[in-house]
Amino acid sequence: MVTISDVARHAGVSPSTVSYVLSGKRSISAETRRRVERSVRKLGYHPHAGARALASSRTNVLALVVPLRVDLNVPVVMQFVGAAVTSARAYDHDLLLLTKDEGPDGLRRIAASAIADAIIVMDVEFAEPRVPVLQSLRRPAVLIGVPAQPGDLTCVDLDFTAAGSTCVAHLADLGHRKIALVGPSPAVYERGTSYAGRFRLGFDATAAERGLRALARPCLPTYDGLRGCLDEILRRQPGTTGIVVHNEAVVPALLAELRARRLRVPRDMSVVAVCPDDMVDNHGIALTSVAIPTAEVGQLAVELAMRQLDGVAQPEIRLLSPRLTTRDSTAIAGRRRTS
Amino acid sequence: MVTISDVARHAGVSPSTVSYVLSGKRSISAETRRRVERSVRKLGYHPHAGARALASSRTNVLALVVPLRVDLNVPVVMQFVGAAVTSARAYDHDLLLLTKDEGPDGLRRIAASAIADAIIVMDVEFAEPRVPVLQSLRRPAVLIGVPAQPGDLTCVDLDFTAAGSTCVAHLADLGHRKIALVGPSPAVYERGTSYAGRFRLGFDATAAERGLRALARPCLPTYDGLRGCLDEILRRQPGTTGIVVHNEAVVPALLAELRARRLRVPRDMSVVAVCPDDMVDNHGIALTSVAIPTAEVGQLAVELAMRQLDGVAQPEIRLLSPRLTTRDSTAIAGRRRTS
DNA sequence: TTGAAAGCGCTACCAA
DNA sequence: TTGGTAGCGCTTTCAA
Question: Edge-to-edge strand order for the sheet containing A178-182?
Answer without folding.
Answer: A213-217, A178-182, A242-245, A270-275, A288-291, A324-325
